[in-house]
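Last lecture ended with a question: if I hand you only a sequence, what can you say about the shape of the protein? Today we answer it with a concrete record. The protein is Alpha/beta fold hydrolase. Below, first the input exactly as provided, then the predicted structure, then a couple of comments.
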Amino acid sequence: MTLTTEDGVKLWAERTGEGDPVILCHGGPGLWDTFDDVARLLADRGAAVHRWDQRGCGRSERRGPYSVARSVADLDAVRKHFGLETVTLLGHSWGARLALHYALAHPARVTRLVYVSGTGIGPDSGWYPEFVGNLRAAIGDRLPRWEELKALERRTEAEEREMCVLQWSADFAGPDRERAQRLAERMATPWYGVNHECNAEINAETRTMSEHQLHAACGGLRMPVVIVDGEQDIRPRDAVDSLAQALPDVSRVTLAGAGHMPWAESPAEFAAAVAPR
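The predicted structure:
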């Protein structure tokens, strides 16, 4: 189904399951919802799961403007569309940051925040260089092809997809890189194309945000927050420490043998950590 925001942009959204309402916020920025497995896990455990593609992404209309505030407003449009007074928010990667900003803007509407594989509230410079090194190591013997594709001034859609699959394969843990490649291929199917404009504009904005101000704001949140990390995520998990320290009601679950998509590699443990209470 589609819904229309107050500025006229059409967003794709759907609901599955019955029970306590959960809205899922996918990563990116500029990507799309790949939460099929998460939706099934939560619906099987008594949740009404609400999924959506963010503005300009996936099945939603490819039109800006793109900003954190606009993303928060779009998330609230999803909540209103489904008639939800209060919700649990589950955000993954950039979506974890979006869910956190929504909770800061509308704390009375969030009963629980599930922060999965986020990168904290500190500057990118604190974690990004280590991430790049880990990424290159995890791509392994396919690194030359990834570098070749990344260096192209213009890529075809097929080349863009190939580059993303190679990069996303690094987000899965363990020595079996063929399995990681298959899981990344699944993420890229169907392929909707990365919105690089959305990615660039939102990332540029988040880089200007003050860690001190965010730390102070997070100290005022009263809903329970669970932070879920994959032990083998190539993004350093200590980047999330300052966020965990700022939150007054927080628990943290680290899943062994899991990377950036922990539900793919530790599904039972992930479900136990994030399922409705």
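Comments.
1. The longest strand covers residues 10-16.
2. The beta strands are 2-4, 10-16, 20-25, 47-52, 87-92, 110-116, 225-230, 250-255.
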